[in-house]
Amino acid sequence: MEAPLAERIRPQKLDEYISQLHLVGPNGSLTQQIAKGIIPSLIFWGPPGTGKTTLAQIIAQESQRPFFILSAINSGVKDIRDVIEKAKQSGGLFTAKNPILFIDEIHRFSKSQQDSLLAAVEKGWITLVGATTENPSFEVIPALLSRCQVYTLNAFTKADLESLLERAMKTDTYLKTKNIQLKETEALLRLSGGDGRKLLNIFELVVNASAEDEIIITNDRVFELVQQNTVLYDKSGEQHYDIISAFIKSIRGSDPNGAVYWLARMIEGGEDVKFIARRLLISASEDIGNANPTALIMANNTFQAVTTIGYPESRILLSQCAIYLATSPKSNASYMAINTAQQIVKQTGDLSVPIHLRNAPTKLMKELGYGEDYKYSHDYANNFAEQEYLPKEIENTPIYVPGNNSRENATRDFLKNRWKDKYGY
């Protein structure tokens, strides 16, 4: 059976690799490491289809090292130990060019599986290269993470994806025999979601579905063919971001039906319970916030619980939490407040702390007046004393704007009572 297009045109050398210039450009950190022949253990973190596996293979090839590959989906501790033994025998214990062990979807490895890698990485029997679509700070155990450098791979740009299509038409033996007119690319790019592998799979599907001598690719033609073959692209991981997006948007839109449907899609697809629970935690603060502070407690308890019990029972807890969040009052006021505050900081820089708010741990600081005019709120009626808490340059700037819901309307009244017209509450 012929290999898929994405596999047929997979780059074999660093100068064929598209994008990620911060890593593989002339001054990229990986370029320098490969040139010196010193490759540390690495974790590639980035969206699906951005070339993590390809980059690992190129590193092994250009540094002339043995290459072993495992997938976290179907590998256990025994598989890891077997590969480590093979790596030790093929590389030798004292060679500078120790073998590379590439682990795809390393975030799916359990703690015990990750523990089994520690000695081999520590003693230099292997150079570990892991690939993950999830934040390694959450998914990789600290002991292993501290032994690896984390490199972030960015999502492909429109230009990167169009370059992939051009390369496919110019270099693939089969496609070169076809008269392909790439009239429109928007549908191909949109359906790929920035995933290079998915883009090439869709492109190949469209080309193979055309019997004409001249294959004209338009947006309408792409949408027509892909909608008829949706099942081909509903593979594990490829709709990962689309489905979690639909899940969170259903919660934000107060539709428990949509939320539970998309939750079921993720559960049936074998999605990691911690990934789902983390997104619920974020939504509880970003989309609900102080309109219902209990939502964050509910989401955090759900995260702790599903981490402990796993599937299949955790599906019930996730469903309960998703429904609770979807039917809760909504407010993004806290989310907008921190966005506003960060933007002010970027625009105004490091403004001085007002002298009455400064700490005065030394005699000199006290003599300079640090903290001298500070009013201790608890010494005043209602535990409130009017004073300025922002730097002089941005005095009276409203940053937190309460949402329009019962809890935050009460908060607005509280702030207006305290601050009168100062912040416009």
Written overview of the protein:
- The protein has four domains: 20-152, Rossmann fold (3-Layer(aba) Sandwich); 158-233, Helicase, Ruva Protein, domain 3; 240-326, Up-down Bundle (Zinc Finger, Delta Prime, domain 3), CATH 1.20.272.10; 350-419, post-AAA+ oligomerization domain-like (Orthogonal Bundle).
- By secondary structure, it is α/β, with parallel strands linked by helices.
- β3, α6 (111-122) and β4 (127-132) form a beta-alpha-beta unit.
- It is 50% helix and 8% strand.
- The chain has a five-stranded parallel β-sheet, with helices on both faces. It has a two-stranded parallel sheet with strand order 6-7.
- The protein has helices at residues 5-8, 21-24, 29-36, 52-62, 77-91, 111-122, 136-139, 142-145, 158-171, 186-192, 196-208, 219-228, 240-252, 256-268, 273-288, 294-309, 314-326, 333-348, 363-367, 406-419, and strands at 42-45, 67-71, 100-104, 127-132, 149-152, 179-182, 214-217.
- The termini are far apart.
